[in-house]
Amino acid sequence: MRTHFCGLIDETLIGQTVTLCGWADVARDLGGVCFIDLRDHEGIVQVVAEASEADGNAEVVATAEKVGYEDCLRITGTVRARHSVNAKIRTGQVEIVATSIEVLNKAEPLPFHHHENPGEETRLKYRYLDLRSPDMQRKMRTRTKLVSALRHWLDARGFQDIETPILTKATPEGARDFLVPARMHPGEFYALPQSPQLFKQILMMAGFDRYYQVARCFRDEALRADRQLEFTQLDMEFAWVSERDVQDLVEAMIRDVFRDVAGVELAAQFPRMTYAEAMRRFGSDKPDLRIALELVDVAELVRDSGFAVFTGPAADPGGRVAALRIPGGASLSRKQIDEYAAHAGKYGAKGLAYIKISETGEISSPIQKFFDEAAFAALVSHVGAGNGDIVFFGAGKYSTVSDFMGAVRLKAGKDFNLVADGWAPLWVTDFPMFEWDDEAQRYVALHHPFTAPSVDDEADLRANAATAVSRGYDMVLNGNEIGGGSIRIHRASMQSAVFDLLGIGAEEAQAKFGFLLDALKYGAPPHGGIAFGIDRIAALMAGTESIRDVIAFPKTTGAQCLMTDAPSPIADAQLAEVHVQVRPRASSAAQ
Amino acid sequence: MRTHFCGLIDETLIGQTVTLCGWADVARDLGGVCFIDLRDHEGIVQVVAEASEADGNAEVVATAEKVGYEDCLRITGTVRARHSVNAKIRTGQVEIVATSIEVLNKAEPLPFHHHENPGEETRLKYRYLDLRSPDMQRKMRTRTKLVSALRHWLDARGFQDIETPILTKATPEGARDFLVPARMHPGEFYALPQSPQLFKQILMMAGFDRYYQVARCFRDEALRADRQLEFTQLDMEFAWVSERDVQDLVEAMIRDVFRDVAGVELAAQFPRMTYAEAMRRFGSDKPDLRIALELVDVAELVRDSGFAVFTGPAADPGGRVAALRIPGGASLSRKQIDEYAAHAGKYGAKGLAYIKISETGEISSPIQKFFDEAAFAALVSHVGAGNGDIVFFGAGKYSTVSDFMGAVRLKAGKDFNLVADGWAPLWVTDFPMFEWDDEAQRYVALHHPFTAPSVDDEADLRANAATAVSRGYDMVLNGNEIGGGSIRIHRASMQSAVFDLLGIGAEEAQAKFGFLLDALKYGAPPHGGIAFGIDRIAALMAGTESIRDVIAFPKTTGAQCLMTDAPSPIADAQLAEVHVQVRPRASSAAQ
């Protein structure tokens, strides 16, 4: 139907006859001469319909006069040099003089045009129009290139792409499962996988050595701006490896793929940081190293102040008093400081003490009065505060202070333009094996229950569970956890010990994970792996904040597809076939 | 952890020290000298543990003596030439003299060993052990190579791999949907896609031009031997194309991939056959052309016989009387002939008339008596029957006769070794647009409701619905439909007309497919595509009858995963969260 793509017409084709298919991006009728910007996935080229000396060309001009936005056209014409070159587009040196214009499909008046900036609801409802825009085409193509580059990289290195089931077993650990009633088994359900974790471990025990899959995963969680019900991860697993084997290989992969797809040169060696160091310096296990702000511990300097909010945590081994100096932060108004306190509050802060030093050296601080002069001066000096700065202080439980001061750091980075250009990858390692859940009064796994501890001995792990370190690792890029993995447990006795520490009794473990415990008994090899978040990496590469821009048909934060109107009610007869019914409203769980 | 793979050790490494990881495939203790066949995904190498003059090597020998089947080992040793070469394995020229044997994970006594031939239930329950066998490794690797080759081929040609949703809208047309209760929308459900059909069409309207996806699809149908609840297709769609554009491209793809992955050279140009011709000659829309047997229509020759079973259909324009000559078929006993009749009966035959001509020319036929001598001789001559042959006859409704005679043809092909070696691909085209469903008293779509008819005009289609031909096409290989596709409807008015002919009213069409009808209004381009069954193609390439051999974790025909025990019962509290409950048994649909 066509000889060339619109966006690829160039001067080498001048004088040739071409046939193009595309949409009318813009059409202008200048009275007897019409210009149509014809658009396909490669770009835009200008088409001219004008009277011809030879045959008048009247029919072509008449057709062109009636062309409207997004009409689907097939145009034949001759390529010629343009009088007024358009340097903004790739084809700007040339235009097509039309000898035939065929309207393949007339477009009705549009709900919006991509030249406008419609609201997201409209964009999602008419997703097919939204995706036609060159900007969305570019973003989606970045994702395609990313996935393709990853696959080619792994295919060349002996990794096997193996599909694991979507209809699988419910394992109520971690996030909430999506359930699928089983027609052939009344009262029973399949679950959609939260990740292929256990299947990929089984694949290692099954002898596949090096596995990958671009895998769809499902978590029925509250949707935040950057979450989807279903998401895609590059899932990988290796047999007979240590942490560094996995890390070195995937670090090289990420570096190569960023270079090839985005033209970005990442560090030749990613920095490495323990979880403890990341929390201490940046208040985050996924620090954005582009922001040159660091937390400073000041417990020693405030322990003897008269400020009870500080002295308690300063004396508590589980407490923390941390300061964050923001250069130029003295420009913050009282209202803006309150906004910082409110922001910290979302992460658990009860308040946000500060010391502000004006450009001329005047100090304003609600906590100054609790210190004698020397102690206050020592504090100011220790955090390196000078004229024009503000220093925020957080005090309380170690993890809470780290969390909210980390959040303050990110906000300050953005507010004061302290986020450097470029790319800051790093590895975070040595995560705690367990976190104590106050509410459930039991340990929970910081990664997942299949992560190996750094100790080989079960008795050792049991004796030191609170301080045990795991063999997990995360790859962080610009403040995003883009990949997470670990060396897994490969012996049944250690797996049982970990289940036990997590409060999963032998019977429950057998019911849920019996196949894993069995498989570990038959010569399971040491193994480990990692999973990368494709949606997030694609968004980073495409330069967009929203992963919805790199997903063809995303759901809203309300878990709906506005284009197809999913989810939707189902006839009761159809539900009967799968042996379920909608629950009467009263007995349903609270919303 | 290792320097080499077991299966790749060869003579170039003689004298070198290597470290290998793998499983003990076999271990033999010959008293002071132990042999271990060490196996990884690349193959097997022989390891020798023997006393050394240097240091005695006693510990190594002692460890080796205790090695059992499937122990997970790490072995260091020196490569040397073997005394007795084993030509059966790739590494058969060499062996490893062990200097260290580390038992990474001892295997408990196995439920079976892959050297045995356990039943399928056992294989599926202990899938990780089954998959370790070299045969299963080879089959699974064939699939990996197939998918990788297809992707690389398409990536090189500008196709974009785009993911479409798994949680989508129920469209109760075609097969039964799997349903997923929506937690955030009480009483509503997502459905798993039967295919990405509508999404890929929308992608063409969204400007992606050429799309592919290795897509998981879901159909909640009764499982036959070669079906799974979830299956994988290579899904493709092209904008601005005709049938031949699609066919020529994917034919080249299949040819290249068979050559590269399986070393198979398919025909330089696939034969093309209309649906009508395929049914007439082979009684199937997916004829296995390796079998040199053809149906012959004999209505003209039996119309005036005295055999009412023949004369009725022979005179009926909707009837058929067909013959199938089987060379050498005279060897069939009465009992075997009955088996053929029973086989045909499964496909709707009420009986199976025959003429048997012995090697010495004696005729045995229950229908001979209905013919005069000349007419009978003419019939025998027309079907080309000679000494040693049998000819089966089917009479009745055209489609029924075609079906069961097609089934008889396949059975005869197998029984009489008439299936030629090699590969017989072809295109089947010109399918009927609609089939009349006697039960529902309405038309149903032979492909799907989005397939374009060969006529452009809605009035023409409505006037000739019964005989309308679609723009659908199937790729058939050795009697398997490995790919099916069509040019799609790209105008809203034609789509509405087809919905109407299928008994889908305007309101229902809007509720189910409103987004498609909307999208068609905004300049939808002409488009078409195809989908290939990856599981079946992989099975064909791997030389196995069962697609379960090329799926890592398949379900049984009872829709269960025997390894994980899915599906399983779910706590009522968890069901309450998603607003459903198990239906009381009595109100459930009949099993």
TrEMBL record, chains A, B:
Region (Aspartate): 197-200
Record keyword Nucleotide-binding present: yes
Main location: cytoplasm
Residues noted as binding ATP in the record, renumbered to the chain: 219-221, 228, 481, 533-536
Keywords (A to Z) from UniProt: Aminoacyl-tRNA synthetase, ATP-binding, Cytoplasm, Ligase, Nucleotide-binding, Protein biosynthesis
EC nos: 6.1.1.12
Source organism, top-level taxon: Bacteria
GO cellular component terms attached to this protein's record: cytoplasm
Binding positions (L-aspartate): 173, 219, 447, 488
UniProt catalytic activity: tRNA(Asp) + L-aspartate + ATP = L-aspartyl-tRNA(Asp) + AMP + diphosphate
Any single biological process term in GO: aspartyl-tRNA aminoacylation
Quaternary structure annotation from Swiss-Prot or TrEMBL: Homodimer.
Role according to the record: Catalyzes the attachment of L-aspartate to tRNA(Asp) in a two-step reaction: L-aspartate is first activated by ATP to form Asp-AMP and then transferred to the acceptor end of tRNA(Asp).
Family membership: Belongs to the class-II aminoacyl-tRNA synthetase family. Type 1 subfamily.
Name this polypeptide is given: Aspartate--tRNA ligase
Organism: Luteimonas chenhongjianii
